[in-house]
Specification:
By secondary structure, the chain is mainly beta. About 15% of the residues lie in helices and about 35% in strands. A four-stranded mixed sheet has the order 1-2-4-3, with no helix packed on it.
């Protein structure tokens, strides 16, 4: 059986006035939900990470801040860096 990624939603989760987290939801919407958080700075998640899941029997939420557009990241950095 082929294990296809079934992307059901992609969006940004607002966690503060200036910070958002990118997420994707894949898999069976009525199955158990698994939360996948990337492994460290710069790691993000990729299609390669998705090979560990069976989207016919699982629903997986992938979270990362690494997928944000560079313009958005620069804006966040300007707002969060202390002035010297």
């Amino acid at each position: 059986m082929e294990n296809l990624t079934r992307l059901t939603r992609t969006d940004f989760l607002k966690v503060s006035k200036t910070h958002k987290i990118y997420y994707e939801v894949c898999g069976n919407p009525i199955a158990e939900t698994i939360l996948f958080i990337h492994g460290g700075p710069g790691a993000g998640f990729s299609e390669r990470d998705k090979r560990f899941f069976n989207f016919d029997t699982q629903r997986v939420v992938f979270l990362t801040k690494e997928e944000l557009p560079k313009v958005f990241l620069l804006d966040v950095l300007k707002k969060t860096q202390p002035s010297i």
